[in-house]
Amino acid sequence: MGKVVVVTSGKGGVGKTTSTAALGAAVAKTGKKVALVDFDVGLRNLDLIMGAERRVVFDLVNVIQGSAKLSQALIRDKRVETLFLLPASQTRDKDALTEDGVGEVIDKLRSVFDYVFCDSPAGIERGAQLAMRFADEAVIVTNPEVSSVRDSDRIIGLLDARTLRAEQGEQIAKHVLVTRYDAARASRGEMLSIDDVLEILSTPLLGIIPESQDVLRASNLGSPVTLSEPLNAAAKAYIDAARRLEGEDLPVVVPFERKGFLDRLLGRRAA
Amino acid sequence: MNLLDIFKRRSSAPVARERLQVLLAYERRNRSQPDLVSILREEIMAVIAKHVQIDQDYLQVSMDRGETMSTLEIDIQIPNKSAVPLAMAG
């Protein structure tokens, strides 16, 4: 039986989709069978980040409504053969997803794949609640910034109340993934530190992804950064986070300011 | 502006941290207990709506939440002409 991991945040634009793609690809590269499911009905983007936007024929809603088989809707990645994508629908019908339908799809995926990553839409409405509903674990993507941390706290409350596991009295494993971390700004006291974020959310840390131009470039190219530039600092951080998600005991190193004269001159970012 | 001001302006993170801690302590407390005032508001409105057609223009609801006491104030004007009880009309 595979593990279902929801990637969520409450706030939009913090890096849920990018992180889903990067983590999923990193896990798949180790040989595990991985499915990425886009729950953002009406505003799908995981296909674009994965570079599969022109290969979408059927989607999650088609599968739930029975107009396509799951095997028809799953898109196999061209780079990693154990990586699959189940795209969201572009329909404007908010009620296209039903709880029973989602449950059935997740159950089928769970029986075939080692990992199922559910890319949650922003917000705390129905779509976000369905994305987390059947999860065993949650990755809470947080930027070191007040509104993101507040929304993450809200999402943690929902994970503990509205998931099937929580309702059955079981624990849902939660991990905070701090993204867009700028070591230089944090060291100057301009940005919440990792300790601040963890203390406020009192949830274990999965990893720290440094702010990086390469993440944007990877999105532009339609490739998870862990596949296109695995040696980049952000990609390495994602790969380490994926290993921790798989249960490996790997210490998290907080990126630190390390700017030399030349770096300053060239405007390079530390970490 | 002296040197101290420059220093103060730079360290905004501790302020962020403190504001968040205060805010989240409050939000978590409210989250754990069902919001009585909101429930009352909804149920009272539902009961009134069952008997009287409520015109949104003549409706004022205000909630005031305090540390030890909260108040719910509902002010509904029922014009005599349109105040036809739904139960009787239906």
From TrEMBL, chain B:
GO terms, molecular function: identical protein binding
Signal peptide extent: none
Keywords for the protein's UniProt record, in alphabetical order: Cell cycle, Cell division
Membrane-crossing residue ranges in chain numbering: none
A GO BP annotation: cell division
Protein purpose: Prevents the cell division inhibition by proteins MinC and MinD at internal division sites while permitting inhibition at polar sites. This ensures cell division at the proper site by restricting the formation of a division septum at the midpoint of the long axis of the cell.
Family to which this protein belongs: Belongs to the MinE family.
Protein name, entry field: Cell division topological specificity factor
Organism: Mesorhizobium kowhaii
